[in-house]
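EI: anyone free to look at a 122-residue chain?
SC: sure, send it
EI:
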Amino acid sequence: QLQLVESGGGLVQPGGSLRLSCAASGFTLDHYVIGWFRQAPGKEREGVSCISSSDGSTFYADSVKGRFTISRDNAKNTVYLQMNSLKPEDTAVYYCAAGDIAAMTDRTYDYWGQGTQVTVSS
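SC: here you go
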């Protein structure tokens, strides 16, 4: 059974850091594009970052560029999202997803995790 599990969310003060993990079971992550998405209360889900399966190219939403970094550890079958300089507006449920196209739109992803809550507040 193909499964993605996110972890690493929590409560952090503005300016702080968190590292989210997306671990896969039942399939090999490096065969897929992996995307991170987030959804804040009352808002639509938005793409945050993705990493390609072919050459490891990375893509970021303008709102997180320079603050977030996506990476893979193929030996651990895990993708990470390092989030630095966090802002209150980063508060959301964060999801990872696996698909075939390196895009920031959720329509191109087939497999989703259950999400992890990130709250940025003083």
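EI: The mean pLDDT is 95.
SC: 👍
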